[in-house]
Specification:
The protein is mostly beta strands. It has one domain: YmcC-like fold, CATH 2.40.360. Helix content is 11%, strand content 51%. It has 2 helices and 16 strands. The chain has a 16-stranded antiparallel sheet that branches. β14 and β15 form a beta hairpin. The longest helix has 19 residues. The N terminus is likely disordered.
Length: 263
């Protein structure tokens, strides 16, 4: 009996040590099975659809449970003759620490193609990519994991104009990624009327947030902090992605204050 008790104590102690090897980030924002759907448009024209999807079951990486997150943007087939878009991103995100273990990017935009894969060795602070192995800081993000990490933060505690500093690895190097808090605003999209916190990513690299001008993101002003709208400046105007539907949320969406009006 004493031998069994001793073994149990050692097992628990070992599990605790492994668990405490990495940081723990409280998360009430998202969970398994969350799906967010968007209309991507230019002025009054619907140009495509996009979605964020967290797989309904966790995946394991080095014995740790992880979220399997996909983000995809597709132009409408009717507009493919004009400019075909088939972009897909995937990140394997640590459930407890909200940091990435793997990242994939597959870009198909017109005649441009790019495929990128990175595996993050968070213990040894290395990014092993299709283009080489590179040193990275602790808990470095890819652009998708950074977005989900920001959702876990208490954004309401930051004053207007504050900048949250993160680090994002992409294309052989680590980039500084600032997130500026712009304030609060109530907006209406197809999915309803929402109270939002408006943020601005301060980065010009990484594909997902690369643009010719400012990018503004409206996050629901509640525990979920789901992206309600993304507005991206391009040379000929603005492209907007607006929330059309959602499912599998971690909890109630208190920032939704009204049904959508007829459009």
């Amino acid at each position: 009996m004493k031998t069994h008790v001793a073994a149990l104590v050692l097992l628990v102690a070992g599990a605790t040590t492994a668990r405490d090897e990495f940081r723990y980030v409280p998360n009430e924002a998202f969970g398994l099975g969350e799906r967010l759907e968007y209309r991507v448009g230019y002025k009054f024209i619907t140009a495509g659809r996009a979605y964020f999807q967290i797989a309904p079951e966790p995946v394991q990486h080095e014995g740790r449970p992880c979220y399997d997150i996909n983000f995809e943007v597709r132009s409408l087939e009717a507009l493919d003759w004009l400019y075909r878009v088939r972009d897909r991103y995937r990140t394997i995100l640590d459930v407890a620490g909200i940091f990435p273990w793997e990242f994939e990017q597959h870009i198909r935009e017109g005649n441009f193609q790019r495929d990128f894969h990175a595996r993050f060795d968070q213990r040894n602070r290395k990014a092993i990519t299709t283009e080489g192995t590179f040193d990275v800081p602790p808990y470095v993000h890819d652009i998708v994991s950074a977005f989900y990490y920001v959702r876990t933060l208490n954004l309401g505690a930051y004053s207007k104009g504050s900048i949250i500093q993160l680090q994002n690895f992409f294309d052989r190097q680590t980039h500084d990624l600032g997130v500026r808090i712009l304030g609060r605003q109530t907006i209406e999209v197809e999915a309803g009327r929402f109270r939002c916190i408006v943020i601005e990513p301060l980065i010009k690299e990484g594909g997902l947030f690369k643009s010719e001008g400012r990018i503004l993101i409206w996050l629901s002003d509640d525990e979920r902090k789901i992206p309600v709208k993304v507005s991206t400046r391009i040379p000929i105007g603005t492209i907007d992605a607006e929330l059309t539907g959602y499912s599998g949320l971690r909890g109630p969406l208190h920032a939704r204050i009204a049904q959508p009006t007829e459009r």
